[in-house]
Amino acid sequence: MLKALIFDVDGTMADSESAHREAFNAAFAQEGLDWVWDEPLYTRLLEISGGKERMTYYWKARHPDMVDISADAMRDTIASLHDLKAAAYGTLVQQGAVPLRPGVRRMVEEAHQQGMMLAIATTTSSLNIAALMRKAIGPDWQHYFAVVEDASTAPLKKPHPQVYLQALQRLGLPARDCLAVEDSANGLRAALAANLPVLITHNRFTAHHDFSGAVRVLPDLSDTTLADLRAWHEEAILA
User: Is 150 annotated as catalytic?
Assistant: First the structure.
């Protein structure tokens, strides 16, 4: 029996990646850097989980011969950029630039009303989650989610399964009783490594990913019911 839904956030619950890209570029400009992440580049960079990890990868790729900065200096610079980016993203959220994806709020409310447990398992920060959920769902958003695992509680980024393993432990449920909802190949790999059946709702940044192993691959949840999720979950468990 399906007892819990475990949601990724960026690109899955919310159409947030364009706002994240805009916030990164705002941080770069504020620091006087000539870095500009256009959509094709950002799409490629999304294959790396985590904003700090993404910036570090880009910095090293852009300047492979750089030897005049220590690891600590790079880490401090990246942390400063990430703080600026988080502030810019928070402003965009408050301006309504990061809506929930189609069908997400309805699914959350229906599952909650029917007594199903809900969890969040994401590599984004707790501040980003709180800002987004307060704006999209309301100040009582935590009432819906029994468990929230994020970058602060699970520092090993997807495709490592840490965030899902910890979510399952806190839910007190076996993986077979849950369904993960993801949008990316890294998210899928993380959930599968935790033995979770996975539903994919891809977006324009991830539609080209390999989703082999997913229970279903959908453009969004707009035409999907909780009964559909239960049926697909049962098929996966019995397969």
Answer: no
